[in-house]
Design brief:
Elements (H helix, E strand, L loop, with lengths): L5 H15 L11 H8 L3 H13 L3 E4 L3 E4 L2 H4 L2 H9 L3 E2 L2 H25 L2 H19 L4 H19 L2 H24 L4 H16 L4 H15 L1 H7 L7 E2 L14
Antiparallel strand pairs: 1-2, 3-4
């Protein structure tokens, strides 16, 4: 993976300021020269970063009036969410993570039931093989990060089998968040094999009995409610608001002073 460019890193810094509230809706950015001096970057890199954020609908430049910060809750999209999730040193906050967990628990049972009702027996067999491999890796004492990666990959496979482009775009954008929550969930549960075993039992019911989508949806919702209970309790202990654990390191260069 190639290193991020300076404009990318400047964009990340400003996105973090917006997400944490350091830059509030309606605020005006300092003039280019002043902001470039503060960050220690050249004005060309800064302007490239500002163009990125304008395309994300985070900023609104008005000739003669400067650049205004927009409310990301009203204007931003999946590209903003994907960017937030990739910024090092940005803690999302307990409130945001609990919202994400709520949406996960609401959406996944419907996604799984739709998938099991539409995909072929061969595809069901592929999912079972993925679950079996995940269980084997976990039983072998693998790193929980690897188990979380496999879990996220399994969900991505199910989504891909549905052939829904919009759903796949949403899954792609939220992959880092799902990996983070899954990793936490595995760390907090007493028996990390429980979810895998429960998922395989649900899959076997679909393979053997062909239950209705409503039955599958209800059963999966119950599984998630139990499996996510320790994770939900942990998220409630976190600071509510997003915050940063690292700060921008000012670049000292000749070009920054031009």
């Amino acid at each position: 993976m190639s290193a991020r460019t300076l404009p990318d890193r400047i964009a990340d810094e400003l996105i973090a300021r917006v997400f944490t509230g350091e830059l509030a809706p309606g605020d005006k950015l300092p003039p280019d020269r002043a902001l470039a001096t503060e960050l220690g970057v050249d004005r060309t890199s800064l302007r490239n970063a500002l163009r990125q954020l304008t395309r994300m609908n985070l900023l609104r430049p008005v000739r003669g009036s400067g650049v205004t910060v927009l409310d990301y809750r009203q204007h931003a999209g999946l590209d903003f969410l994907a960017a937030v999730l990739e910024i090092p040193g940005l803690e999302l906050g307990g409130a945001f993570l609990l919202e994400a967990l709520d949406h996960w628990e609401q959406a996944m049972p419907s996604i799984v039931s739709s998938a099991l009702a539409r995909i072929t027996p061969a595809q069901l067999g592929e999912i079972d093989e993925l679950l079996e491999h995940q269980a084997e890796v976990l039983e072998a004492g693998a790193d929980l990060d690897e188990v979380a990666r496999l879990e996220v990959g399994l969900i991505d496979s199910v989504v891909a089998m549905l052939g829904d482009v919009t759903l796949r775009l949403m899954a792609n954008s939220t992959r880092p968040l799902r990996r983070r929550l899954t990793r936490l969930q595995l760390e907090l549960t007493d028996d990390p094999l429980a979810q895998i075993q429960a998922s395989r039992m649900l899959l076997r019911r679909a393979l053997e009995d062909g239950p209705s989508p409503d039955i599958i949806r209800t059963a999966h919702a119950q599984i998630l409610s139990v499996v996510h209970a320790p994770l939900r309790a942990h998220l409630r202990t976190l600071p509510t608001r997003p915050h940063r654990t690292s700060r921008w390191q000012r670049h000292e260069s000749a070009s920054a002073r031009t």
